[in-house]
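TA notes. Do not distribute before section.
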Amino acid sequence: MSRQAVILTLLATLMCGAVFALWPELDLEVARLFLRDGAFAGSGASARALRWLLYVLPSAALGGAALMWLAGRLGGRRFLFLVLSMALGPGLLVNVILKDHWHRPRPVQTMEFGGPDPFRPWYRFDGACEKNCSFVSGETSAAAWLVAPASLAPPPLQLPAIVLALGVAAATGATRMAFGGHYLSDVLFAILFSLLVAQGLARLLHRTETTPPKDEPPLP
């Protein structure tokens, strides 16, 4: 992945942080769009089925990559890139470091939507949530990880695959907001953090690749 892509993603992350720090009420206004008769709209059977489908897609993609690696159809460095980007992004950064230590209450937990806890903007660490909190969306970050395998597609298919992966991430984020599980800033940061981890890891592995393995293209 190019240096320019990393810089653009980093700038987008900084801009996202600034916008939601200056106007934290944006999170509340967008969350209200998902209310139906005073409750969040994502409680029906079709919404739960869609959430489950989007939830399993990243695991299925990583499992498919493992099968391709075992069959000799995917190079070791590329498989390592996929495993590490999933483990370090959605795994370590999001689900271990952020969600259990940021203490941001989810929308359904906040007073504005009938919960017991005060709303907290993304930059506050003094929320009432103890574990598995709102910042950032774990399911959305895993869906955004799909950009990593999409970036390994052949050049004619690479851009459409990346766009499709981002579409899956956006759909996952919208589903989580519809359930009252996350704010818009949780979703946007989740996507951007996963992209930054994958982009940084790809560049790191590319720099350490002194001699490209036979029959294996270099990492993007």
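Switch to the second chain here.
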Amino acid sequence: MTTSPPQPRKSDGLKHLLFGKLPLEHETAMFVLVNVLDFLMTYWMLMNSGEGLKFVESNPVAAFFLHRWGPIKGMLFFKLSIVVFVCLIAQIIAQRRMETARMLLRVGTLAVACIVMYSAMLYLRHT
């Protein structure tokens, strides 16, 4: 007599998603890292404007959070919420289409890395 392996319950999928090895850990870590760099670069530029030079946030949504709640609470919350949203969407997509989720994280990482480099160029050019 042969027995079939036990079928996973629905709660096992959620448990694995929360406590197991996540798919695309490397891509997710890189995405989070460049977003941390983006926050630090934005914070540095806003707080350390040169004499007679003032950097401003050009994204109107980010500027709303910045002016309403300040650079730590407002800007950090805004950027963190975007990072969490993209990472969650990528993990959900990865359950069915791994390559699509991988591409989402890679394109997001590249886009934010370009923003970080642009910010660094701006800062170096004007200080």
